Amino acid sequence: MSLAASQIKGPLGGVTVIDLTRVLAGPFCTMMLADLGARVIKVEVPGSGDDSRAYGPFVGGKSAYFISINRGKESLALDLKKPDDRTVFEALLGEADVVVENYRPGTMEKLGYGWDTLHARFPRLIYAAVSGFGHSGPYSTRPAYDLVVQAMGGIMSLTGQPEGPPTRVGSSIGDLTAGMFTAVGISSALYRRQIDGKGFKVDVGMLDSQIALLENAIVRTTISGKPPGPLGTRHPSIAPFDMYRTADSWLVLAAGNDHVFRHLAATLGRPALADDARFATNDSRIVHVEALKAEIEAALLTATTEHWLPIFTAAGIPCGPFNNVAQALADPQVQARNMVVSVTDPRTGELHVAGNPIKTSAFPDPATRAPAPELDEGRTRIRGELGLK
Amino acid sequence: MSLAASQIKGPLGGVTVIDLTRVLAGPFCTMMLADLGARVIKVEVPGSGDDSRAYGPFVGGKSAYFISINRGKESLALDLKKPDDRTVFEALLGEADVVVENYRPGTMEKLGYGWDTLHARFPRLIYAAVSGFGHSGPYSTRPAYDLVVQAMGGIMSLTGQPEGPPTRVGSSIGDLTAGMFTAVGISSALYRRQIDGKGFKVDVGMLDSQIALLENAIVRTTISGKPPGPLGTRHPSIAPFDMYRTADSWLVLAAGNDHVFRHLAATLGRPALADDARFATNDSRIVHVEALKAEIEAALLTATTEHWLPIFTAAGIPCGPFNNVAQALADPQVQARNMVVSVTDPRTGELHVAGNPIKTSAFPDPATRAPAPELDEGRTRIRGELGLK
Question: Annotated catalytic, A288?
Fold first, then answer.
């Protein structure tokens, strides 16, 4: 007996992922794999399942939070401490390509399913772990949440208003980016295994992932000895490159060089700004960045964002509105790119969730997606495929 | 003649990437591929090269910004409008596995190197494009920067203080996450090609990538019709889960359930908080979240962060400091995980940059990395490998 391929078409078609992950970092990773065509079998604790099944908002008694990161997966409830369920789990591992977990380090070892054990028994199996601090180092076994790693990892020190209070990135990028790095690790491991036939372990920490996102802030800090602080919305070294007030809301404008700045000033109806000595070069515009902002806003405040946007767009100047989530989802480009997809769940009816940002020439990008599974919905089907009762 | 493999050991060993990308989203993607063992040959405009070679800070006349996202790559300067250089470029494509570009859509077509043309001539070549708005839709050819897509994509509407001004995520996650999704697309395409022998096109937009990061904010918006706003540092539906003031700075504390809250209150020296009717359940704690914060801070303000951290850590309560970038880089866990690596460049001397967050059991994770290339440093070597003058 062997497991069938996913019905979803994609580059990872034919790949089977056994998914022990809960809540966000791991499930976001395995949703990416499912969107790429892998069959993802979510192994959950009997009774309650993934903790996020209890997170609001709820529709028809089902967590919309859970649906938004578990669509297109299957569910099997297994108690990994019970012999019968261990038999099922081991049969799954024998058929699977990848196992993913986001337990605290050591948990899999306690269950008898640590990497060394699994690798000895299933040498082709790829093992991926995503955890708060990774599987080594002094904090390895500590609990972590998104807010903890955002605060420790430095990104919050760059986010917020100058002299303002600490500000969290409003999306859980501590979890999400760790899930993304794990997906890169897994897909590169799948490639490698086609070459040499061997599985290996991928170990991604949320705190590590935050460091990887600091990019040039690291060299700016280590060269000068002075860590940078938050700048609101402005660019540290280019001006104008900021969000500006209009008569009714806000507008992003960005001019990467003197030529674009001259064009921007003319489009704003203030061509003289480009001849002002304070604003002649990018270096001088950075020195006088507050004065420049006041001049630009004085002009922009005479009309609405809706007035200005098509004018700057037609002029080819990088610009954009400040959208709330409803406005972002309704944006014609977001719609045209199929970035809001529909999931129809028997309990909730139709819901809208994020689409797959990895578009390809070879595979469909359907506007409707399979719903997230009810707990243990795959029990009979998956056991049957494995030839177990 | 054929191109040698990268000296870097990793799952993508033996893969060759021709990298036409500039500045951030594309170079971040190809740095991930280089860290995973791919040989990345950066094709740059003769004379000036990648725009980011002109971005500060500079050390020894070389851009540290450029080094921090181009280490471990090679450089070849080619003018893709000149016949001789086109011959070299086409010889490279004939040997390569992947080509990556982050031009505005249409640029490759104008050069005669659009996807259809390349696919017909090099059917195994994987083509990846990362652009502001993707290769379809009404905004496809518009210019975009990180700030533009952060503002349009909704994440900024969730980031900041309640009633405060717009706040940008302090790292360029518009670029970085698009680069990460592109890396997932490329590595899954490499896997697929091992199965079916065919290359395909991967098309990632920065705006799309922002939508993919909104996770549960999408369902919260579409279900209620009310888009969520920024919350500073607090969690929308769990309390206490926030950053709190101490005598000298700040401390993150998180209690995901009533049991942990009781333990947190006792550890804080205020066990009575857990018996206060306002704080009896998570739901009531969310209603009284400001009063709860005041109580917690009243206790924390009696001592420093350095006093409190080991106490909460020993109690097993998720907690952490608010680190600036210098503190984050010096953190013992970050150091133990090799997340700050050393690059020694002949011009700059030793610099420190981010390590690779994708740790594996199969490949080394060296503490020193190859420097970023000088413009066209690979001219003789790469032409020689191709059998060209």
Answer: no
Could you tell me which residue, B24 or B3, shows the higher pLDDT?
Answer: B24
pLDDT-based confidence at residue A212 (cuts at 50, 70, 90): very high
- pLDDT tens per residue across span B87-97: 999 999 999 99
Q: Are B38 and B15 in contact (CB under 8 A)?
A: yes
Chain B residue numbers touching A154 (CB-CB < 8 A): 323-325, 327-329
Q: Residue B239's Cα: distance from chain center in Å?
A: 29
Question: Is domain A16-213+338-386 classified as CATH 1.50.10.10?
Answer: no
Residue with tokens 């580059």: A11
By C-alpha distance, the chain A residue nearest B358 is A204
pTM of the model: 0.98
Q: Are A326 and A337 in contact (CB under 8 A)?
A: no
Overall CATH class of domain A241-245+250-321: alpha beta
| Domain chopping of chain A, boundaries | 16-213+338-386, 241-245+250-321
Contact between B222 and A332 using a beta-carbon 8 Å cutoff: no
SS3 of chain B: the string is CCCCCCCCCCCCCCCEEEECCCCCHHHHHHHHHHHCCCEEEEEECCCCCCHHHHCCCEECCEEHHHHHHHCCCEEEECCCCCHHHHHHHHHHHHHCCEEEECCCCCHHHHCCCCHHHHHHHCCCCEEEEEECCCCCCCCCCCCCCHHHHHHHHCHHHHCCCCCCCCCCCCCCHHHHHHHHHHHHHHHHHHHHHHHHCCCCEEEEEHHHHHHHCCCHHHHHHHHHCCCCCCCCCCCCCCCCEEEEECCCCEEEEECCCHHHHHHHHHHCCCHHHHHCHHHCCHHHHHHCHHHHHHHHHHHHCCCCHHHHHHHHHHCCCCEECCCCHHHHHHCHHHHHCCCEEEEEECCCEEEEEECCCCEECCCCCCCEECCCCCCCCCHHHHHHHHCCC
The reply to whether A16-213+338-386 and A241-245+250-321 are identical in fold is: no
Residues in chain B with CB shorter than 8 Å from the CB of A53 are none
C-beta atoms of B219 and A64 within 8 A: yes
Question: For residue B360, what are the β-bridge partners?
Answer: A202
The tens digit of pLDDT for each residue in A40-49 reads 999 999 999 9
CA–CA dist B307, B319 (Å, integer): 13
pLDDT-derived band of residue A1, with 50, 70 and 90 as boundaries?
Answer: low
Contact B212 A324 (CB under 8 A): no
